[in-house]
Amino acid sequence: MKLLKRGLVLVVFMSLIFALAGCQPAAKEEKKSEPVALTISAAASLKEAMTEIQSLYLEESPETTLTLNFGSSGSLAQQIQQGAEVDVFMSASAKDMTTLKDAQLMNDDTIKNLLGNEVVLVVPKDSTATITSFDQLVDPAITKIGIGEPSSVPVGQYAVDVFNFYNIMEQIQSKIIYGKDVKEVLTWVETANVDAGVVYSTDARASSNAKIAATAPADSHKAIIYPAGVVKASKNNDAAVAFVTYLSSDAAKAVFEKYGFTIL
């Protein structure tokens, strides 16, 4: 009888052990990040820096695929207004970002002013022109001047500001050729299809076939600000926010500074 009781106690004891074991939380499985694809629409002047940052970000977040779409800020903003599937917008002017913000197309709390830049006058590398200031563009020897289309290219808007600052706009109007973005203007200068062009200092620094003739005074044009933010229609809001946050990381800042941008 005692043996039977001992057996029953043992069975009950073992049952309790198994029951308690079953109540313990199961070991957490390692959570794997789901693949996500982001489309980044960025000002053309950011091309070199953003291409490098893309590689760095993929090392940190290998589950993310980044598609970089470069163009003039105004054109990119218009694409977003027309319903283009974009997750992050990086503009070369506060104006185009404000346009989208006012249209309620941006997640306002994600918008951050990231960078600054300078406006410069460039000439072909082998040019013999002795230009050292914007006001010398009135020289009859300068027959073609390339600038971005002011209605859609921020650096084109800044160029007009500088021309008006020096009171030369009316005198040089007939010499001006308008490009679709800053890279097109730079190409014209590099290939000597224009005598001079107005671009950002970062574009000039990245070129081996153009040289800086003059730098516009900071008070000769509107402040150059590069804001970035998440588009409200993004289907990958969390991932987009993470990417915009990364743009302010030490690693990203180092790349931007390498290409001559000012960190704001």
Automatic annotation (TrEMBL):
Q: Which residues constitute the signal peptide according to the record?
A: 1-21
Recorded source organism is Acetobacterium wieringae
For this entry, the protein name equals: Molybdate ABC transporter substrate-binding protein
Keywords from the named record: Metal-binding, Signal
Keyword GTP-binding appears in the UniProt entry: no
UniProt similarity note: Belongs to the bacterial solute-binding protein ModA family.
Q: Which SUPFAM superfamilies match?
A: Periplasmic binding protein-like II (SSF53850)
